[in-house]
Every structure is written in structure tokens, then in C-alpha cells.
Design brief:
It is built from seven helices and eleven strands. The protein has a three-stranded antiparallel sheet. By secondary structure, the chain is an alpha+beta fold. Bound molecules: glycine and manganese (II) ion (2 copies).
Length: about 280
């Protein structure tokens, strides 16, 4: 009598590669996830008001997702003022103050595919001059990092692009002094920007797939990869490295991007991100 032993082989790496490159059908689903996620953020911008609780605003986002039969693809972050400087803030239970910004990192899951958007906007509908200065640095980093994502580029190109703009911005704001390249080499940005600029996105919010090739270097971008772009600047209330006027400001702007043969395809463009667009949307009741 023979007893055939089953042979187990770990096929994770094969499946992960299949998950990494999305086909047209998957991209169509992710486009919808991006649109519903964007809708949640638009509704939050239209609803927010001073004194509202972060939790009430989170409920607004979840309600918008639920209108399309969707649940959040991860624990939403709704962080007013200095709470935005806590990267994984999920308490979402504090009142939102007039004059502060609120950072919302929330995405809808549609047909198992995740959306992942961050927007930062003024609780009272109008950015102060100081908030605008910082915001526009992060916005430039977001836009240029997105535009850097092309087939054949290495997979850290968006991070490198963002670091250049954020570091130059920190110089322009009077927070760092010196040569941009040298400051980047020294990682002088770390007290104000302490995370990467993106991750694979798909069935999971931090999706499967290797970031580096066998040579240990970032792999080249291929058509059908979907990646987030999420630069930020974080000036905690107690960060004495920054002038007082910037303390308590935390900003991140995150979009979901498909690598194509041509220009990168932004899945989350339905929610505004320039100062002017946000202020215009928030004026309408
Ligand atoms: N919301 C999780 C992330 O942005 O990575
Ligand atoms: Mn993300
Ligand atoms: Mn996010």
C-alpha cells in the first residue's frame, strides 16, 4: 500500500506578481473605487464646519461610501489640526477647530478593490496664508511625483521626485538651509517627512508584489501597475525645528495612479486638490 504525500509549494510569489499587474477589467473596477472614494471626500468638504467632531465627519465619509454599497478599505483617518501629525491617528473623536486644517485619509472598497485618498482642507473653508504656503509645497510634490511615473522608470522615482520638491520647499519656508541634494543625502527632511511616497494598490490597500528586483534595486515600472502617491509635510505642535507659525500643521495629499504606456492615469481626480478648487467647492452649500 502506498501513501502519496502531498507536496506543498508556496505560490505566493506567483500570485503576488499576477496581482501586481492589473488587466483592463481590474483597472475599470479600480476606477470606480477611485470615483466612490473621491465622492466621500467631496461630501466631507461640503459638510465640514467648525466645532463638528472628527467622528461626525468620518461618518459622513462612510455614509457616502455606503450609498454605493461600499465599506472603507481601511480605518479612515480624520485628523483635525495637530492630530494630522500623528501618522496613524484613528481615534477620530476630537472637535474640529475654526482656523485649523483637517486631514482625511479614507478610501472605499469596490468589488474587493481598494481606493486610498488623502485630502487636507480648512475646517472653515478658507486656507490661511501660512497654511497655503505649506499646502502648495505638498501639492507640487504630489503633482510632479505623479507625472514622474512612467513605464521603464525605477519604482522609487516618485519618492525621489517628491523629496526634491519637499526639501526645496523646506528651504523656501525657512526651515532648512543649504544645498538641496546635500540635504536629501543627509535625510534632513526626516523630522518633517518620515514616510515613503507610495505603495502598490489593489485587492489590498497595501497590495502584494515586490518592490525590489533580484538585484535589490527598485524594480522598473510596468504598464498596469497601480501605485499611490502620498507626499506630506508634518510640523508637530512641539517641533521646535520649525518656526512657531507652522507648528500644528500637518498636510498630506494622496492619489491613486495607474502606470500606462503614456501619461499616468489618475483614478482619484474627481476630488479637488488645488487651494482654489477646494475653496470654491467649500463655498457651495
Ligand atoms: N491609508 C493608508 C495609506 O495611505 O497607506
Ligand atoms: Mn496610501
Ligand atoms: Mn491613505
Amino acid at each position: 500500500q502506498t501513501c502519496a504525500l502531498p507536496i506543498f509549494t508556496n505560490i505566493d510569489s506567483l500570485i503576488n506578481e499576477m496581482r501586481l499587474i492589473k488587466d483592463e477589467h481590474e483597472i475599470a473596477l479600480m476606477k470606480v473605487a477611485g470615483e466612490i472614494s473621491a465622492y466621500g471626500h467631496v461630501q466631507a468638504m461640503k459638510t465640514v464646519a467648525p466645532e463638528m467632531n472628527e467622528g461626525r465627519l468620518e461618518a459622513e465619509v462612510n455614509y457616502a461610501f455606503a450609498q454605493y454599497g461600499c465599506v472603507p478599505s481601511y480605518n479612515s483617518i480624520v485628523a483635525g489640526g495637530d492630530n494630522a501629525n500623528i501618522l496613524h491617528y484613528v481615534e477620530n473623536d476630537q472637535p474640529l477647530n475654526d482656523g485649523d486644517l483637517v486631514l482625511i485619509d479614507a478610501g472605499a472598497e469596490y468589488q474587493h478593490y481598494a481606493g486610498d485618498i488623502t485630502r487636507t482642507f480648512p475646517v472653515n473653508g478658507k486656507f490661511s496664508d501660512v497654511q497655503k504656503q505649506v499646502y502648495n509645497v505638498v501639492l507640487k510634490a504630489n503633482i510632479e511625483a505623479i507625472n514622474s511615473l512612467k513605464v521603464g522608470e525605477h519604482g522609487k522615482i516618485h519618492h525621489e521626485t517628491a523629496l526634491k520638491i519637499l526639501t526645496q520647499g523646506l528651504i523656501d519656508l525657512g526651515i532648512l538651509t543649504g544645498d538641496v541634494d546635500k540635504l536629501i543625502e543627509e535625510k534632513a527632511y526626516t523630522p518633517f517627512y518620515m514616510h515613503g511616497t507610495g505603495h502598490w494598490l489593489g485587492l489590498d490597500v497595501h497590495d502584494a508584489g515586490r518592490y525590489n528586483g533580484d538585484d535589490g534595486k527598485p524594480r522598473k515600472l510596468q504598464k498596469g501597475m497601480v501605485i499611490t502617491v502620498e507626499p506630506g509635510l508634518y510640523f508637530a505642535k512641539d517641533n521646535e525645528l520649525v518656526p512657531e507659525k507652522y507648528r500644528g500643521i500637518g498636510i498630506r495629499i494622496e492619489d491613486d495612479v495607474v502606470i500606462t504606456d503614456g501619461e499616468p492615469l489618475v483614478l482619484t481626480g474627481d476630488v479637488p486638490k488645488t487651494v482654489e478648487e477646494i475653496e470654491a467647492l467649500m463655498k457651495i452649500d
